[in-house]
Amino acid sequence: DRGLERQLGRALRFKVPAEGVTVVEDLVRGEVRFANSTIEDFVVAKSNGDPLFVLAGVVDDREMRISHVIRAEEHLPTTPKAVLLWEALGTGELPLPAYAHLPVLVNEKRQKISKRRDRVAIEDYRAQGFLPEAMVNYLALLGWSPGDGREFFTLNELISEFDLVNVNHSPAFFDQQKLLHFNGVYVRGLSVEEFIDRCRRWAAQDALTPVVADFASSEFARLASLVQERAATLSEAASLVEFLFTPEFSVEDASFEKAVARDPEGGSILTEARERLASCDFEAESLRAQIAELGEKLGRKLGKVQAPIRVATLGRSVGLPLFESLEVLGRERTLERIDGALARIAKSAS
Q1: What is the pLDDT of residue 322?
Q2: pLDDT digits (tens, 9 = 90+) for 87-105
Q3: Is the distance from CB of 292 to CB of 302 less than 8 angstroms?
Q4: Interatomic CA distance for residues 93 and 76, integer angstroms
Q5: In Å, how far from its chain's centre is CA 169?
Q6: Which residue of the set 15, 109, 115, 347 is catalytic?
Q7: What is the pLDDT of residue 47?
Q8: What is the pLDDT of residues 130-154, one digit of tens each?
Q9: Percent of the chain, pLDDT > 90?
Q10: Which terminus of the chain has a smaller tally of CB atoms within 10 A, N or C?
C-alpha cells in the first residue's frame, strides 16, 4: 500500500507473483499452466473506483457460491487472473469453482461465428419455424457427443447424459443444413394434430410477416400429413400450401417458362387436361387416372405430363402431390387457373 489517493491517471493493480505458475483446472482442456512471469500486474479498479470485470466477476462468483464457470475459450487467458484474485481473497469455505472453456462456433468458412455477419439470433430461427426441441438437441451436439454415435435426444436424456468432460475443445461447425435436417426429423415426429397446432401457434406468435396460409382451416387439415412429410420448417409448411389461400394467385415465371412455354405440347396438355378435369370425379385417384391416361395417349410418363398442369394450377414446379392438392383446391379454381395459363400462352403467341 503506497498510500496513494484515488485520482485521475491512477488505477488499482493486482501484483502478480514474479515466480511460479498459476494452474487452471479446466474440465474441457485439462490442466492449463500459466507462468506468472507472463501475466502483467493487471488493473482491478479504475481511477474512479469502478471495478473491472475480472474483479467484479470473482466477487459475484463468491457471493453467489458459483460452482461452475462455463464460458467461451477466448476467456481462458483471463482465468489465471481470476484464480489469483480468488486465492488472494482467501478460499476458506469457498473453493475455486470448476472452470470449463467451451469451443468457439465457426461458420461454413470456418470463421468464428459473428452476430454482425452470421445469423445467430434465436428469434430468427423461431420466426422461420424451427422447433425449440430441435434447436436444443442440435446445439447440444456442437462440441459434445455421448460417444456412441447417437444424435437425437429428448431434453431429459440430454440432462442425464451431458457431461462437460466429454466436450471437445476443437472449434464446432454450426452447420445450417444439418440443423435444417434435425428440424425436419422433429417436424415429422409430431402427430398430425400437434403439427397443425404448432403451425397455428407459429403463424400467430412467431412469424415476422402475416402468413397467408390458414392453418385452422379444413383445407389445411386435409393436406397436413402430406405437408408434414415434406416441410423441414413451419415456414416451409406455409409456403407449400400458399396456393390454396393466396388471394391473388400467380405462377412463377421461371417455372412457367420451363414447364409450359418451352414445351411444344404444353398448351395441348393443358387444353385436354381441362376437358378431362371438367367432367371426371374430382378426387385424387380419379384425377390421377385421367392424367395418366392422357400421358399414355401422348407417349409421356406421368411426371412429364403432370409438369405443365402442376405449374398452371399450383404456381410452381415442385411441391405437394399434384392430385391430392387439386382435390382440395377444387374443380372451379383448378379450371380457372388452367384457363389463365392457356390465356398466357395465347398472349405470348400473338
Answers
A1: 97
A2: 999 877 789 999 999 999 9
A3: yes
A4: 25
A5: 24
A6: 115
A7: 85
A8: 999 999 999 999 999 888 889 999 9
A9: 81
A10: N
Q: Which string of b and e fits 243-278 if b means at least 16 CB within 10 Å?
A: bbbeeebebeeebbebbbbebeebbebbebbbeebe
Which one-letter amino acid corresponds to residue 270? L
Q: Rounded to whole angstroms, how far apart are CA atoms 340 and 256? A: 12
Is 115 in the active site? yes
Nearest to 255 by CA among 308, 300, 295, 306: 308
The CA–CA distances, whole Å, from 259 to 73, 289, 337 equal 53, 21, 15
Residue with cell 511460479: 20
At a CB cut-off of 8 Å and minimum separation 6, what does 151 contact? Answer: 137, 141, 182
- 284-287 long-range contacts, CB within 8 A, separation 24+: 284/321, 284/323, 284/324, 284/326, 284/327, 285/323, 287/322, 287/323, 287/326, 287/327
Whether the Cβ atoms of residue 67 and residue 97 lie closer than 8 Å to each other: yes
The mean pLDDT value for 256-275 works out to 93
Residue whose grid cell is 379454381: 333
Under DSSP, the state recorded for 99 is: E
Q: What are the b/e assignments for 96-125, b being 16+ CB within 10 Å?
A: ebebbbbbbbbbeeeeebeeeebeeeeeeb
Residue 302 vs residues 70, 203, 206, 284: alpha-carbon distances, Å: 58, 35, 39, 14
Element at 44 (helix H, strand E): strand 43-45
Average pLDDT estimate for 43-55: 91
The average confidence (pLDDT) of the chain is 93
Computed on alpha carbons and rounded to an integer, the radius of gyration of the chain in Å comes to 31
Residue 118: pLDDT band by 50, 70, 90 thresholds? confident
| DSSP secondary structure letters along 57-94 | HHHHHHHTT--EEEEEGGGGGGHHHHHHHHHHH--TT-
Whole-model pTM: value is 0.85
Q: Where are the alpha helices (DSSP H) in the chain?
A: 53-63, 79-89, 122-128, 132-140, 155-161, 176-189, 192-201, 218-230, 234-240, 242-245, 253-256, 266-277, 284-298, 302-314, 322-329, 331-349
